Amino acid sequence: MLSKEERSALNHLFWSDFRKVMKNTPSSAKKRVNWLNYPTNLKHTYLRLVFNSNEASLCYDVQFRDQDIRTLFWEQLQELKALIESSMESPTIWLKDYENDEGLCISRIKWETKDYSLHNREDWRAAQKFFKERLLEFDIFYQEYKDVLIHLIK
Predict the structure, then answer these.
(1) What integer pLDDT is reported at residue 117 of this predicted model?
(2) With contact defined as beta carbons under 8 Å apart, do 124 and 115 qualify?
């Protein structure tokens, strides 16, 4: 079992290495992107990368504080479900009511693999490939449909 400090050091090392992998990779819009903090340009929606002892996942989180707005936005996302899923090479998991680590109820679209562990450094290259592929797939979808998503809540 790793200590909190050892887990933190591994986490930092993995994401620093991944930042280097993605450094010169432009978005589909041919712009530089901070892939670890993907710009959704929409308040209360976030793209999160999760890598821990039991999964690697890319998550699109919808975190509107107002439950009615979150529900409305989620329903509109469902209208784009076929487009989102056809853009991604990995199965899509739709979680309308998901409790995050902070105890907040959010909605989440998730692409995951349970094949890799942060604690096994031999998995890191494959996990980085998984993240890179999912990010680039998501980016193609998002660049094409972000205006639609942004206008959903205006």
Answers:
(1) 96
(2) no
